[in-house]
Structure formats: structure tokens, C-alpha cells
Amino acid sequence: MKKLLLIATCALWVSSLEAQQKTIAERLGYPKNTKLLILHADDVGVSHSVNLATTTAMEKGCINSASIMVPCPWFTEIASYVREHPGMDFGLHITLTSEWSNYKWGPVTPSTKAPTLINKEGFLYSSVDSVKQFAASTQVEEEIRNQVRRAIQFGIDPTHLDAHMFAVVRKPDFIKAYIKVGREYKIPVFLAREMERELNVKLESLISKNEVIADSIVTILPDMMASNPAAYYAQTLRSLPVGLTYFIIHTAYDNEEMKSVTKGFTDWGSAWRQTEFDFFSSGECARLLKENNIQIITWREIRDKLYR
């Protein structure tokens, strides 16, 4: 009997070890060396222009995932769209900043209960540095939770949580709150290896075995946007590594509304977002994905296979 118990214990230990050693691709049911890609659009809910461009690129282009900024003025419009398109991949872009000069929003949590999250005008801070300096982690946690609750109240079934301007993953206490709320609602949270450098903490020490860490983040930066963005996008897709890559995109139409929202900003401004919409809605993008044997996946797939 003792021998059988020892054999059973060893078998369980080996099975557990094998599960931990599996790649994300294997855990999702793909071959070990698969190049997995989430083409993800941030900032949905900021404006009508962002909402329309992003949903068009998801319906007719290559973008297959997006995240919603719950505190923003055009949240109700995108919530209505999500209710009418329940199979699409929409998560929540957890928002602790309000960065544009003349276009502002505050937290979902009443300001009397979140005084460390707001500036003297009652808006969320413009910069991540201010969030890091002034925001109390308990109030950050409650704001994350309230953004999730509000989304669910409006009929959204979030596929994931991610971080606007990475504000919620810039301090260990913040990221712990972010992971905690994700677990409460069985929603995956976006984590990537690059976050470890600033946090000075190993992500494995914060997560459980069924949770996911992206192998790499890709997003265009100002110097390449100013030179040859199409070449950057194409080369990135051609050289995509094995593992899970999270390609962050910002889409909108370069119209009067978006020019007003981003007035005074070139980086991540109105024209920038039109450029991203154009490429990721193009046949060239679709061709590159096919030619380079890239497996497009969604947060919904990750959530339903690994978290629920």
C-alpha cells in the first residue's frame, strides 16, 4: 500500500512539473513552437472616432482584440456595440490616467472615496509618475474593481484586463491589486516579461500556474512612426518569435473629433492612429500573417481554456 501511495505521489508530481514546463502554445492546444499573436487595439471608448475605426478594423481587417476605457465619455457607445456583438474579443483597459490637455475624465469610483487618484480639478492625473507618487494602492484596487463592475453592469463580458499607459503595473502593490481583481472575476490580466525590469520582481512570484505571461510586447515608437511605419510593421510580422506576442495598436480616424481630442500631441495623436488603422486593415497585413505562419489568438480563447 505504501509503495502504491509513493508511486501515485510521484506520478502527480511529474504531471504537475510537466504542466508547468509546457509552453503557452501547448497549454492552448497548439504545437510547442507556434508563433502566437494577439493584434490588440487600445483606448476604445475614448471617442466616437476610436470606437468606429477599431470596430471596423476588427470586422474587416486584422485586429482581433481590443480593450475599453470604462471611465471615458464614449464608453456607453462601445458598450452597446459589445452587447450586440457578444462573440468579439473586448477586455478592459484599466484606466488611472487622463493624459490629453483639453479632454478629461475622472475615476468611476466617487471622488470622495478616491481622493488620491485625482488632481485638484477632480480628473485622473495626466502622468503615470503622478499616479505612482500619489495614488494609494487600496484606492487603486477599488477603482480597478469598480471599472470591472461598471463594465459588467453595462452588459460587457470582459475577456481580459490590461493597463492604460501601463499605470497599473508600475508598482508592486498596484500589480498585486490588478491580479487580485482579475482572479475575483476569473478574467486574465495582461502581464509581460518586460514589466519585471521596472517592478524588480519576478512575475512568477505573483501568479498561479494557470495564469499567463506574454513572452513579448510589440508597439511602434515615435522614431519609427516618423520614418517608415509600414516597414516596421511588416518586419515585425516577418520576424515574429515563437511564443505569445502582444502587438499593441492604437486606431482612430484622423478627423476633426480626434484632432481636437489629441490637440497638441503628435505621438499617439490623430494622424498616428489613422496610420495604424490603415495598415492593420490592409490586405498587406493579412498576407504577412498568412505567409509567416502566425497563429492569431484572442484573450477570449485564453480565458475560456485556461481560466474558466
TrEMBL record:
Pfam families: YdjC
A single MF term (Gene Ontology): metal ion binding
Names of the cofactor(s): Mg(2+)
Entry keyword set: Carbohydrate metabolism, Hydrolase, Magnesium, Metal-binding, Signal
Keyword Magnesium (UniProt): yes
Protein name as annotated: ChbG/HpnK family deacetylase
CDD domains noted in UniProt: YdjC_TTHB029_like
GO biological processes: carbohydrate metabolic process
InterPro entries: Glyco_hydro/deAcase_b/a-brl, YdjC-like
N-terminal signal peptide: 1-19
